[in-house]
Amino acid sequence: MRVLVVEDEKKTASFVRKALQSEGFAVDVCGNGDDALTAVAGTLFDGIVLDIMLPGRDGLSVLRQLREGGNKTPVLLLSARGSVNERVEGLNAGADDYLPKPFVIAELVARVRALGRRGGEVKSTLLRLADLTLDTVSHRAERGGKTFELTAREFRLLEFLMRTPGRICGRMSIIEKVWDYDFDPGTNLVDVYVKRLREKIDDDFEPKLLHTVRGIGYVLKEAP
Ligand code: CA
User: Fold this and answer.
1) How many structural domains does the chain have?
2) For residue 117, how far is its CA from the centre of ligand 1 (angstroms)?
3) Could you tell me if 14 and 107 lie in one domain?
4) Over the stretch 146-184, which tens digit does the pLDDT of each residue have?
5) pLDDT score of 36
């Protein structure tokens, strides 16, 4: 995992670089916002640790510039001024996470590692809803740190629902998409598979994600 650290205070930058390197990250360091934008234009990073207080262009401006240009690299913002307003401003500008200074280095490392996991979703092999993820390559689902093996049919059902989050899927459309039948087999096939899927992804967790819409079908969404 390659990380860019943008921080003008040399001691902090070097401390963060060493900590990340000792955890196996490849680390580049920039001391100002313009250098950071140049670095990001030339290298694909898995995450950026971005200090807000920088000489010249500040961290929020760097972040806005990146997002306006379509760059989706996950960003962890750092700031000495841990005000709520600044945090909100940072998250609105497209930051993925925020860590006020002074920070404990182990927490920074853990958050950078978490950024890397978020980065996976832009590669589109990972579908995500709340804390549920589905890897469309390995056919594995994960929720709350627990991994589930899915059968081929369960995988197709979950993938179909995750690609249409918040949309009510009728039993017939599920049968067509997941079983490739163009007729109603007249059984409770869908309900049986939904039940199995629920046991895996919902039984031990809150909030429930897979909801029944009585008489119609099912919907996968965060809110009830
Ligand atoms: Ca700084």
Assistant:
1) 2
2) 26
3) yes
4) 998 888 889 889 999 998 889 999 998 898 888 878 777
5) 96
3-state secondary structure of 160: helix
CA dist 211 → 156, 163, 165, 221 (Å) = 17, 15, 11, 8
Q: How far is the CA of 63 from the centre of ligand 1 (A)?
A: 15
Q: Could you tell me the distance, in angstroms and rounded to a whole number, from the CA of residue 53 to the centre of ligand 1?
A: 4
Q: How many whole angstroms separate alpha carbon 174 and alpha carbon 154?
A: 12
Confidence band of 31 (pLDDT split at 50, 70, 90):
very high
The CATH number for 74's domain is 3.40.50.2300
What is the structure's pLDDT at 123? Answer: 42
Range of the domain at 211: 126-220
Would you tell me how many other CB atoms lie within 10 Å of the CB of residue 169? Answer: 20
Boundary (domain end) residue, out of 118, 147, 180: 118
Residues 96 and 145 reside in one and the same domain: no
Residues 21 and 81 in one domain: yes
48 CA to centre of ligand 1 in angstroms: 14
State in Å: Cα 114 to ligand 1 middle.
22
CA of 31 to the centre of ligand 1 (A): 8
Expressed in angstroms and rounded, the spacing between residue 90 Cα and the centre of ligand 1 is 15
